[in-house]
Amino acid sequence: MKKEELFEVYKSKVLATYGKTPLVFVKGKGSYLWDMHNNKYLDFFPGWGVCNVGHCNSFVMSAVRDQISKLVFIPNNYYNMPQAKLAKEIIYWSFPSKAFFCNSGAEANEAAIKFSRVFGQGNRHEIITFENSFHGRTFGALSATGQEKYKRPFKPLLEGFKTIKFNDIDAVKKAITDNTVAIILELVQGEGGVNIAEKSFVQDLRKICDEKNILLIFDEVQTGMGRTGEMFCYKNYQVVPDVMTLAKSIAGGLPMGVMLVKDSIADIFTKGMHASTFGGGPVVCKAALGVFKAISKEKMLHNVKIQGKYLFEKLLEFKKKYPIIKEIRSLGLMVGIELNCPGEKIVQACLKNKLLINCTHENVLRLMPALNITQSQIKSAIRVLNKAFEENL
Ligand SMILES: Cc1ncc(COP(=O)(O)O)c(C=O)c1O
Asked: Which residue in 1, 148, 212, 298 has its CB near the most CB atoms, within 10 A?
C-alpha cells in the first residue's frame, strides 16, 4: 500500500480520535525509528512513554518469542507461570502487596477506584484528585482526571471526585470530609505538563492518609519502570503508597496494566469482584519480565541518573540563551521544558531534523528518551533542539 492510499484508508475507515503526524514507521531499534522510506529518526518520546527500554529491546523480544511458541493465552481461571513470576518481580522491586493484572493505565486506575469503593464499605466513596492530573479515558479514570478539556463532552461523569490544587496541603486538608476514602496522584504529572510533586507535600499526604485511614494511591503509569531513576518514582520520596497503578512501559510495548495493593488490605477484593479477560496473559507477562531483566542487565537506573543530570544541565544552558523558555523541570529522564508560547512549532522544527519529541499542555515540550539513551544521542538531540530554538526565536 502506498503512503497516500494508507492516509486515505485512515481518513475514510478509522475514527479520527488522534492527531496524526504524517509518518509511517516500519522499524525500531533502541532509540531509533525508521520510516517506510528508510529515513532514520532519533526518538526522544518513544511510544508515548511505552518504550522505556527502547524499541524492540532484545530481552523483551526473546522473552516474547520464547513464550509465543509455547502458549499465547490462558485465562485467569487457570494458573499461569509467567504471571506468578511477574507478580514476584514487581513486588520485589516495590512493597509487600498483591497484584491485579489488566491491559492499560485507565483500566488499572479503574481497578483502584473500584478497590477504593470496597475499602469504603459503602460509608465513604469520595476521592481527592489534583488539577492537571491525567488518569485515563474510561469513565472512572476520566472522572479522576483534573483537566476539563478531556471531560467536557462526556458529562455527566462519575460522581464523588474532588479536584484540588496540586502541591497544596492546605487544600487537601480543606477537601477531606468524613466521606473521603482515597487520594490519587501522579508524583510527576505527565500530560499535565511535567509538574513534580514536592517531597514535603507527598510526605504530608502520607501522614494525613494514615491518620484518617484514607488510601494513598500513586498513579505510576508514566513515572514507573525506571523513568525517574528509581524503579518506581515513589522511592524518590521515601513514601510508600497503599495502592499503585502501572501500565505503559511495563511490558515493553505490549498492553499491560497493573494495580498493586498493600498486603494488609489486599484481601478485601474477593472472588468475582473484579476481572479482565486478557489481564496478565502469559505473553505480556513474559514481555514484562523481559523489561525488568533489561533494566537490570543494562544498568538502566544508573544510566537514567547520569544521563538525566547531563540532559538537565544542557537544557539549563538553553534557558539562559533562549528567553522563550520559562522553566525546565525534570526528574531522571522525565523532562519538561515550559515555554512562554505554544510549543508545536518547536516540535515541527525538530521533526524536520529527524528528532521526535512531544509537546503537552500546549506549551510544555516533553522529553522522555529511552532509559538506555547514550550521551552522544543526547548531544545529537541537543544540536537539533538548539537549531529549532534558534529558528523560532
Ligand atoms: C499517569 C497516567 N495515568 C493513566 C494513563 C492512561 O493510560 P492508558 O492510556 O494506558 O489507559 C496515562 C496515559 O497517558 C497516564 O499518563
From this structure: 298
Q: What is the DSSP string of 29-51?
A: EBTEEEETT--EEEESSGGGGT-
Q: Say if ligand 1 is within 6 A of residue 111 CB.
A: no
Distances (CA, A) of 4 to 11, 25, 37: 11, 14, 13
Q: If you take atom 4 of ligand 1, which residue's CA is the nearest one?
A: 135
Containing domain of residue 376, as a range?
Answer: 3-53+304-391
The residue among 297, 330, 347 that closes a domain is 297
pLDDT digits (tens, 9 = 90+) for 265-302: 999 999 999 999 999 999 999 999 999 999 999 999 99
Predicted TM-score (pTM) of the model is: 0.98
Query: What's the 53 CA to ligand 1 centre distance in angstroms?
Result: 18
The DSSP 8-state label assigned to residue 337 in this structure reads: E
Quote the number of domains for the chain: 2
Instruction: Please indicate, yes or no, whether residues 167 and 26 belong to a single structural domain of this protein.
Output: no
- Among 250, 266, 297, the domain boundary falls at 297
DSSP 3-state assignment of 60? helix
Instruction: Please work out whether the CB of residue 104 comes within 6 Å of at least one atom of ligand 1.
Output: yes
- Ranges of residues in the chain whose predicted pLDDT is under 70: none
Nearest CA, atom 3, ligand 1:
135
Residue 226 Cα to ligand 1 midpoint, Å, equals: 16
pLDDT number for residue 393? 78
Q: Whose CA is nearest to atom 16 of ligand 1?
A: 222
